[in-house]
Amino acid sequence: MAKPPSSIESLETERLLLLRMRAEDADDMVAMQHDNRFIEVFGHRTPEERVRRGVVRTEEDWDRLGYGWWTLRDRESGAFVGRGGIQPVTIDGVDEVELGYALRPEWWGRGLATEVSSAGLALAFERLELPNVVAFTMPSNLRSSRVMEKVGFTFERDIVWSELPHVLYRLRREEWHRRGP
Q: How many C-beta atoms lie closer than 10 Å to residue 46's C-beta?
């Protein structure tokens, strides 16, 4: 993947501020991923050190590729909502770009995952001109699968991720353009 001419480190959607993830976001990320409601949906508690390493890796992605996870904040209050956007990922030995989102439980059910997904796909397909993007979730996370389908993804196959069963979805650039962003 070629490095884009410049990165999009901050963006606003209707209700969210999408900000390049930074080291100072690590405490919020740990708190979100250690919330019992979050763990119930995502299937496991991610060790704190692994969450913190993920934030560092995201900063490196931004420096190397010009994109990575955004930290999501409420536009009105500035409150931490979650993380989302696109990031590099390797699935079954193949390098891919993943669209992802994870929100604090108190922000679920408001359409914010769809909102950040739309922004991430616009970045992937309009600015970076990527050929396709993947997304995945646990089979039991029907809300997340619904978001993927709503923004145009199609189920591709079952995979194992983090030692847990997941469903893999894919969206090709031409399909996204055909649907309209």
A: 18
Rounded to a whole number, what is the largest CA-CA distance in the chain? 42
What is the residue extent of each domain of the chain?
A: 10-129
Q: What is the mean pLDDT of residues 126-132?
A: 96
Domain 10-129 has CATH 3.40.630.30: yes
User: What are residue 4's phi and psi, to 5 degrees?
Assistant: -70, 160
**pLDDT 10s digits, 114-125:** 999 999 999 999
Cα distances (Å, whole numbers) of residue 39 to 45, 46, 125? 6, 8, 31
